[in-house]
Amino acid sequence: MNLKNGPATSDQVNAVASFLLDMPNSVGRDVPIVSKTFRGTELFSYVQDTWQVTRKLTLSPGLRWEFYPPFTPKAAGRFSNYDPNTNSLVIAGVGGNPLDLGRQTNYKDFAPRFGIAYRMTDRTVVRAGFAMSYFPYPDNDYAFDFPVLQNNAFSAANDFTQVQNAGQPVSMSGGLPAPIVATIPSNGIIPVTATKVGTTSLVDQKYTAVPLNFREPYVESWNLAIQRALPGKFVLEAAYVGNHGVDVPATFNLNAATVANTGQAGRPLLQRFAPNGPTNDVNLKYAGFSSAYHALQVKMDHKLSAGFLMTTAYTYGKGLGFRTDGGGEGGINIYVANIRINYAPMTYDRRHTFVNSVIYELPFGRGKPWLKSGAGQWIAGGWQVSTILTLMTGAPLVFSGGPFKILHGINSSPWFENTFDPTTKCKGPFCPGTRGVLGNTPRTAFRGPGLFNLDSSVFRRFALKERVGLEFRAEAFSVTNTPQFSNPNTNFNSSSFGFVKGTNGGNRSVQLGAKLTF
Q1: What is the pLDDT of residue 439?
Q2: Helical residues (DSSP H) of 239-385, grouped into ranges
């Protein structure tokens, strides 16, 4: 080990040797004292109607009511929720604590829906709609803090001695120490203090805090479309599509440091309840944030005519949000003291998308213009060709990393290392800023490679007998063998930062298939 600007030392412990000698320095395990089970009820009712007001105007009103009562455990004592206001653990169903932890029940989750279609002319139709959709608490990992889930940890006094339990050495061959089950107070409240409960240090635990005022998230969706029939069996449609997410759930760390370079001392709950404040994360599940999506969608269809069918679609869209993408576990992971900096394009956002699909029956064989009989009909008749072309711009990039490591000889400290490199320059955006000052780069300011893909297939059905047929299909994916490059490595701490190291597909592949029908 080499200390910065200090003497070199060589004291070290061989972890492999300790493992082989069965002399661990520390042991621990998470112990579920009770089964992590709970009950949830969901009730729904709706009414909907379609009303043709006139020959040209049709309305489709509807209303849905959704009811999501708070979860309850299977029995008392099986929920434990951290209360950041009192720095304590609230045990459901014990003392005066309700089984549902006191979470508010929402009775006003009404979701209206409304659609309208108006035929302006025989060739032009206008459609519009609005709808709301709720969804329930999105996580099964509910209020399972200590003592529902306990961590039995045993550590030695220093790095050079074997861990002990009650004065006796602990080893793998002898088995881990028996779980020490904590006693729940009669009032159902366990204060978080620096004093261990059994072998569990409550201030070092990672906690989940379920907000008692949690509201079911919902999405407001709307659209306005104009459809026009054109000559040549073409249909053109242009639409504006949008949605607005309200109270979109995101994990929010209540105990994240709000001042840079302060370490544990910067944790607000640790400061507030010192010396008994939690030193680990306290994840609020969930805080509600917003999201938005707006898009222009244009589509040109050619109805099936003379064996030709085509759909061409283009979308210009933008999806924005605060949280990382994914399921209910998505979290605010940039800087909790300035939430607004997290609002940026989502990682699924593709600004431009173009898709063209074609199905074409070759004009040969029975009922077609050419080669209606004979050998030509048998060889060339009945074939169908299809293609799908997809073009998309790149997806946003999310950068991560710790200390400043872009230039050689410079790290996160405002001084050079003890070896000075006179060739090192620091100019413009590549120069580290003042310590503790948050940068202004959005969460997803840059985008990765775009996508080009062309798939194709041929198909034919052979009539062998009256009720027996043979279907043949040949499909080729990525006909042009164009690589679909993945996003580059965006971790500043990685030696491969900025390099594209793989693909998401794009290798040409062909598959043949036959199916006998009878």
Answers
A1: 65
A2: 268-272, 374-380
